[in-house]
Amino acid sequence: MNANPLPDMVRGIAERKIRVIDLTQTLTPDFPQIELPPEMGQCWPFRLEEVSRYDDRGLAAYWNNFSCGEHTGTHFDAPIHWVSGRNLPNNSTDTVPVENMVAPACVVDCVKHVEQNADFLLSADFLRNWEEEHGKIPPRSWVLMRTDWSKRADPESYQNFDEEGQHTPGPDTDAVRFLVEERDVMGFGSECIGTDAGQAMHLRPPYPCHYYIHGAGRYGLQCLTNLDLLPPTGSVVFTAPLKIKQGSGSPLRVLALVWEG
Ligand code: MN
């Protein structure tokens, strides 16, 4: 790289030739929170409590306290989140290298399949077919699974529980191994509440996306939205989690840059 490309980039954003797309859901107490079996520990949903709003608690100021689990709303999973990544270097939100927080994205459209089957599993063959059309997934890119799941505004349909548990799409074991071992991806992103499918406890190993992605020191993104506004290739995403000491993840604002020319 000879000339500094940053002024061109900033001009491109100002002129809307580069669009900034928000891939983030709004944090509200109503947004679905991951529900774990009752015998396990539970993650707090998002809560907001007013400190003052230009009133006798503080005439000039409006501000709030908030509380939530690390894995709330649109959020980032660090390698330390899973037992397979527990002993890796730079595995928590405070030590993830910042260079890894800016990376290209490949968007894999699974919408038609998920419309037919909420338990749809993205396979390695599906990814190979995607590559036939869009080119090889570059190393250190995000693979974002587009399902349009984020369009389910009703929390019950977003969670999609029945007596067997949750029914949401995700990758199968071969797909995850292909992405980690043969494509060296930066991470895997989903519009659903987990990177793994709702029924992924029945896969081997259970929750293969968590197991292999975090075991390789890479990352997860969940509860993404607006993936339908991204091209299959060519976008760049910014994924900086809060710098929580030894954090296993955090809510974050995920932004994508898209060249519109
Ligand atoms: Mn998570």
Write the layout of secondary structure elements.
Layout: H1 6-14, E1 18-22, E2 47-55, E3 58-67, E4 75-77, E5 102-109, H2 111-116, E6 121-122, H3 124-134, E7 142-146, H4 155-159, E8 161-162, E9 165-166, E10 170-171, H5 173-182, E11 187-190, H6 208-215, E12 219-222, E13 235-238, E14 249-251, E15 255-259
Parallel strand pairs: 5-7, 6-10, 7-11, 11-12
Antiparallel strand pairs: 1-15, 2-3, 4-12, 4-14, 5-13, 8-9, 13-15
The structure holds manganese (II) ion.
Descriptive account of the structure:
This protein is an alpha/beta fold. Helices cover 19% and strands 26% of the residues. The strands form four sheets. It has a nine-stranded mixed sheet with strand order 1-15-13-5-7-11-12-4-14. The longest helix is centred in the middle third of the chain and has 11 residues, at 124-134. 38% of the residues are buried. The structure holds manganese (II) ion. Manganese (II) ion (MN) is lined by residues 71, 75, 77, 222, 249.
The second-level CATH architecture is: 3-Layer(bba) Sandwich
Compute the separation of the termini in Å. 21 Å
**Top CATH class:** Alpha Beta
State the CATH superfamily name: Putative cyclase
Characterize the biggest β-sheet. 9 strands, mixed
Roughly what percent helix? Answer: 10-25%
Q: What is the strand content? A: 25-35%
Bound molecules: manganese (II) ion
Mean pLDDT: 97
**Number of spatially distinct domains:** 1
